[in-house]
Amino acid sequence: xxxxxxxxxxxxxxxxxxxxxxxxxxxxxxxxxxxxxxxxxxxxxxxxxxxxxxxxxxxxxxxxxxxxxxxxxxxxxxxxxxxxxxxxxxxxxxxxxxxxxxxxxxxxxxxxxxxxxxxxxxxxxxxxxxxxxxxxxxxxxxxxxxxxxxxxxxxxxxxxxxxxxxxxxxxxxxxxxxxxxxxxxxxxxxxxxxxxxxxxxxxxxxxxxxxxxxxxxxxxxxxxxxxxxxxxxxxxxxxxxxxxxxxxxxxxxxxxxxxxxxxxxxxxxxxxxxxxxxxxxxxxxxxxxxxxxxxxxxxxxxxxxxxxxxxxxxxxxxxxxxxxxxxxxxxxxxxxxxxxxxxxxxxxxxxxxxxxxxxxxxxxxxxxxxxxxxxxxxxxxxxxxxxxxxxxxxxxxxxxxxxxxxxxxxxxxxxxxxxxxxxxxxxxxxxxxxxxxxxxxxxxxxxxxxxxxxxxxxxxxxxxxxxxxxxxxxxxxxxxxxxxxxxxxxxxxxxxxxxxxxxxxxxxxxxxxxxxxxxxxxxxxxxxxxxxxxxxxxxxxxxxxxxxxxxxxxxxxxxxxxxxxxxxxxxxxxxxxxxxxxxxxxxxxxxxxxxxxxxxxxxxxxxxxxxxxxxxxxxxxxxxxxxxxxxxxxxxxxxxxxxxxxxxxxxxxxxxxxxxxxxxxxxxxxxxxxxxxxxxxxxxxxxxxxxxxxxxxxxxxxxxxxxxxxxxxxxxxxxxxxxxxxxxxxxxxxxxxxxxxxxxxxxxxxxxxxxxxxxxxxxxxxxxxxxxxxxxxxxxxxxxxxxxxxxxxxxxxxxxxxxxxxxxxxxxxxxxxxxxxxxxxxxxxxxxxxxxxxxxxxxxxxxxxxxx
Length: 852
What we know:
The protein is of the alpha/beta class and 852 residues long. The longest helix has 31 residues, at 356-386. The two termini are 59 Å apart. A 7-stranded parallel beta sheet has the order 11-12-10-13-14-9-15, sandwiched between helices. The protein has a 6-stranded parallel beta sheet with strand order 16-21-20-17-19-18, with helices on both faces.
C-alpha cells in the first residue's frame, strides 16, 4: 500500500477510536490535506480519488460525528475498490502494522510520521502548551533512560526511544547529527520567525536581514544564457507593498510559489532599479494558524524527508520532557555571580522562547558555558604541559651578545624582548610551548635562529618545518647565513634541507646524519615527519606558519624527540579574543615592531573603471626591473553553480591570465598559480617567478603566506572586497621586501560605498594587529583559526569568538575555579568535571595530542 494511503488509514482509525471528534490531527483532519495531496500526486494516485478525498475532508469540521463516520467509511470503501486494498471497515484494525503509541491523556499530538515530500518542508505547526512526553518503546529502552540514572547516561539513549521514530527516521535524523536525546537537546534552531512582531514590506530597508510574511501574487521560471541558467522569480505581497524574490538554478522553488499561498521569506534586502528585492532567500510555506500564535517560532536545519512541522513537534516533546531532568553542571554560586539562567530554563528558551529577552538570556547562558569549558580545558592542558620536564639549555651572556653583534642589522626592542622570553623558556626545565606572532617582516626568523643556536651549542638537535618547499628553502638560506659561515655556531654541513624534491640518496645521507647526531639542524617540509627520520637528540622543534599544519603533523614532529621545546610561528596577527580562547594553551609572544628602514607600502583603492591606471604602474615597475603580483578571488568562473549568482562580476585567475597575457601584457611572461595545481607545479611556478622567468604572477589566495620575492614591488588585488582585511594585509606583505618603493592596489568589484569604506582601513594603517581586530569584528574568526578551527571550536554552537567581554568573563571564572579546585574534585564541582570531560570528548584527544 502506498505511504499516502497508509497515513489515511492511521488518521481514519484514530478518528474512529476517538469517536470522530476531529482531533486525530492537531487542528482537524483538514490540516493534513495540503501535504497529503502533494504526496498522493507524487505517488501517482488516481486524480478522481485524490479529488474525492479532498472534497470529503475539506469541510469535515462542519459535519456531525455520525456524518463524519459515514464520510470516512464511504471514502475507505472507494479507496478499497479503486486501489485493491483490503476491504476492512474504518473503525476496525485497518492496518496490519500496530499504530504509533499515543498517550491517551494528550491525544491531540499524534502526527509522528514525517511527510516525505520535499515541498512540504515549510509547513509550520507549533503547539507550545501540550505535548506528549516521549515514552520508551520497550522494557530495555525504558531501563536505559530511567530518570533515576545519571542524566548524562540517560541522554545517551538513541532517538528510537521516541514514539514514532523507528530505524528509518533515525537514519534520516542521523544526517542532521541527531543520534541521541542529548543531540536533540543541543540541536539549536538556525533562526526564529517572530510572529509577535512582523515588519511590513513597505517599511523594509536596503541591507536588512529580515523575515517577511506575505502572499504569492505570481511566479515565473525562465532560462537564460542558452538554457544554462534557470531564473525563478516570485512577487510577494502583504497588503502594504510588493517584494520580488529571485532564485538562480533552483527550479523546484516554483512548487512553493503557487499564487495565493502564504510564505515566509528570510534573507537580505537588496535593490534593483530602485525597487526592493531578495536574491535566493530561504522560503517556507506557512499555515494560517501560525499568524495568530503571537509566538517566536524556531526554524531548524533540515535534510531530505524531514519537515519543519514534524521536527519542531518532535523537538518540543523532547525538550519539554527532558530539559527539566538535566542536572545543572554550573554551581548555583557561579550562576548567581555571572547572572546566568539555570540549564532547564536555558534549554527550553533557546528552542521555544517566550520573548526576545528570554532568548537572549538563554543564548548568553549556553554561550558562557561553552567558553567556560573551552577555557577550563585550555588551562588543564597548559598545566599538564608545564608539569613536564625538559632539558635545560643555558648560554653565557657574553656568548649571546657576541652572536647578536655578528648580525648584519640591529635587533628591535620587540626582538630583544622575544629573545629574552625564548632564552628563559629554554632554561626553565619545562618544555617551551610558545606561539611567536609577528607581522610580515617583523623579524621572527632571526629569533628562531638564535633559539636554535642556544640549543645546538649544547650539542642537541633542532628541526624547522615549513608548509612549502619554497618557504623551507628560504629558511635554509637564512639559517646558513645566521648560524654558519666564518665563526658560525655550526658548519654548513651540520645544516641540511630535506624537502620532497631532495634526491633519495641525499635523503638517506640526511637521515643517517640525524640518527648519529652529526647533523644539528634540519629544515624541511612534511618530509621531516616520515617514519624513517630518526633524531639522535631532538630538543627544539619550530613550526612556521603553524595554521597550515594539522594537529597530527605537529605532534608527529614533536614525537621525534622526548619532550622537546616547541615554538610555532605565524605572520597572521591574532586578535586578543582568539588569543584568550583557541590559543589559550600557548604562551603568546607578540612582535609588533618593524625593523628600522623598512619602507611603508603605498596602498590605494582603485575603482573598476580605473584598472588601466594599475596596468600602467605595473608596466612602469617592470620596465625598471621589478615584478608584480595580480590576485583574483576565484580560480574559474562557474555560473552553473546554483549557489552562485550567474551575473556576479567576480573575475577568475584562469580566465584573466589568458586575457592579460594576450591582450594587456603580451610583451611580458605571466605565470599562473592556483590551488588546483599539483604541489610540484606550484613549487615550479613560484621558483620560476622568484628566478625572474615571469615578470607577473597571476594567482589566487594561495600566494598569501611566506613567499619572499625581494624584486616584487606591485601587489594588485582584483575583487578586493571578497577578501578579509587580514588576508589583504598578508598579500601586501608579499611586496616591499627589497629596497625599492612598493605599491598595493586594491580594486573592488563595484563602487559600493560601504565595502570601500571597509577597504579604506588598508590605506590608513599598515598595522596588522589593528586590521586583524577589525577583520574579526566584520568577518568572524575563520581566517585566523586554520587547522585549529575544526578541533578547538567543534562544539561552539552559540559562543562567538568575537565577544571579548564574554570571553574575558568566562576566563576569569575559569581561572578562579582552577585556582580553587584544579581537578574539579570538590563535591560542588563534580558535575562540572563530568560535563567538561564530556564536552571535550573526542575533541579532547585531538587537542591533548597537540601539546603532547
